Each structure stands twice: as structure tokens, then as C-alpha cells.
């Protein structure tokens, strides 16, 4: 996901902001297994989907950009051989944007995964006050990846327990393994004086949420923009503070604080000491690098507002078009699955990308839509899978 940092805990991708903040998400069941095709049925004709020409144009451009990766990536969902995309990708390369609707109508068919009942959240690219150089009031450092963050097995861990990838941590001067510094330690200066600062930001609360998103824009007092993106994570536990606040009865109900990103931020501002303690329960810390282009999703393609959706690659092919019809009408339309997310699990769970700016923040921060989803596949795919 622009790859949203919580999505990237333990990997690269992302968690939708509201999910990251702790909203309970009763999403669909886990992704299909080897019997994938048994959980797929035909959907309606693409021509019956009420997308606009503008919507189709954006989807076509996003699909075209995704094709190089779509053709070479293994389809973890098991639904389709990547080579099956070749013909529609060849067509997309020269298809006129002004006639994008006909492209999807003529060359795609829809598939419903399981019952098709979808749940979607939203994410965006935050813009906060920041500077490449330290300025008065800009006191929170943005760190690059430290060179002592390594993957290693603790010496006292038996060989029989060493499965998968070694955990992230650091090795001290005596060769002993330790968990890496957590959020509170880093905020307390554990990395100070090592030349890792690439920027400084003005508001630590805004930076906390930018870390959750995994990328964003820093704007200095002269209006100059520096884009930063996810470089790595400290390997420590992620805690969704929205859930903590709700469990403690501090937001929701008659507290005066909504269970949304905006409500959570307001609580943190109104209760700075308590808020700092709660934010430090999230031990995860994100390291950044400067970006020379816009943020990219897990597909390696620059994400675009209103066109990019994060999906579960175990459930559907990354790069494929998706149709959403939700009770949040702003999210209705054609999307391209160009990103992933740690909380985005199952065939009908999505995270919609809204770009940057205040409108994007408002839509993403309040996005919690339910409805119907269809996956779009090249015509003839369902026949080849024996789905009638």
C-alpha cells in the first residue's frame, strides 16, 4: 500500500487508517485456498455496471500502468495464469482513454468471490508541517533506516524453534541479540546523534498518523514539499490505539469523541500526557526515505486517488480491476488492485486510496463501506476454470 506502515509491519504493505486506529472490522473469512474456483461464481455483465466514463478512464490508466507487473507476477490467489492477461494488456497499451468504458465492456467479465459481500476502508497520503533542516518548533525527527537494525536469531533460541525469517533486532558490542528500540525509547533519544535524521516535523501526533499511513508529504514554512516513504520498521509490536481508547471508554458513546481518525486525534490533543502514553503503547516505529515520485503500492506502481485499491493477493490477482458498489457512494466504481495491507484479508476486503489533502483525509478517515464487490477478469477466464 503506499504501503501504509501498519500494513508493513512484518512486510511492506499497509493497514487502513481506521483499522490501524483500532476500529473493529468484522471482515470476510480468510482467502480461498487450493479449491479457489469452488468459491467463484459468475457475476453480472460488465455492461450492466453503472460506471461513468471518467471512472473508466481512471481505471484504464491505472490498469495500463499495472500491466508490466501483472504479467510477470505469480498469482498467489490461484485464479488465473498471469499469461492470461497478455491480450487485454496489449489492448490497453494503445486503447484510447476517451473510449475506456468500451474496453472493459468488450474484454472483461465479472466474477463473484464467495458471497461478494464487501467491506472497504480508506487511506490517504498525509501532508504535515516538516522541514529538511531543524527549525524552532520542528522538534520531532524523521529517521532513515539505522544500520544496526538486523535480522538475527537470539543465541538462546533453540535451533528447533528457528523457523521462518529471523526477527528484527540489534546486536550489541558483545554479540548479544536484543529487540530493537521501541517507540518510547526512540522518542527518548535512542537514535539521536547518529546522523539518521532526514527531516524534522512540527506535530508529533500528525507524524504518528503519517507513520501509520507509511508515506506522506512534509511542507516547510516556505511551502516547499518533501515526499517521504516507507523504508523499514523496527520489528516491534503494533498496537491500534483506537481500540485501546475505545476499550478504556475514552472515545465513542457519550465521551464527546467520535470513533474516527478525527475523534482520536482530538482526544490526543486534549489530553497530551495521557495521549503520549497511549501512543507509546504502539511500539512500532517506521523509518523513511525521501521519494522522488508519488507513493507506490505493493505492486510497485504509483498509486492514484480514486483508482487504487488495496486487496488481499492471496484472494485476487494484484493488478486486476475490481468493481465496488457500497453504501458509501463516493467509493462506488471501478478500482485497480495495486496495493496490499496487513489488515486487508479475504476476497472481499478492500482499502481505497484517496490521494492527499483535506478532502482525502476526510473521506479516508471516515470510510467504512459495505456492499457488493466483483472481480473483473479477461473474457473467457471463467470458461477456462470450468465455471458456468
Automatic annotation (TrEMBL):
User: MF terms per GO, please?
Assistant: hydrolase activity, hydrolyzing O-glycosyl compounds; peptidoglycan lytic transglycosylase activity
- Say if the entry is tagged with keyword Repeat: no
- SUPFAM superfamilies documented for this protein: Barwin-like endoglucanases (SSF50685)
Q: Which GO terms describe its cellular component?
A: outer membrane
- Please name one Pfam family that this protein belongs to: MltA
Q: Which residues form the Lytic transglycosylase MltA domain?
A: 127-289
Q: According to its UniProt record, which reaction does this protein catalyse? A: Exolytic cleavage of the (1->4)-beta-glycosidic linkage between N-acetylmuramic acid (MurNAc) and N-acetylglucosamine (GlcNAc) residues in peptidoglycan, from either the reducing or the non-reducing ends of the peptidoglycan chains, with concomitant formation of a 1,6-anhydrobond in the MurNAc residue
Q: List GO BP terms, alphabetically.
A: cell wall organization; peptidoglycan catabolic process; peptidoglycan turnover
Q: Could you name the domain of life of the organism this protein comes from?
A: Bacteria
* Enzyme Commission (EC) number: 4.2.2.n1
- Keywords carried by this UniProt record: Cell wall biogenesis/degradation, Lyase, Signal
The stretch of residues making up the signal peptide is 1-31
Q: What is this protein called?
A: peptidoglycan lytic exotransglycosylase
Q: Which organism is this protein's natural source?
A: Alteriqipengyuania halimionae
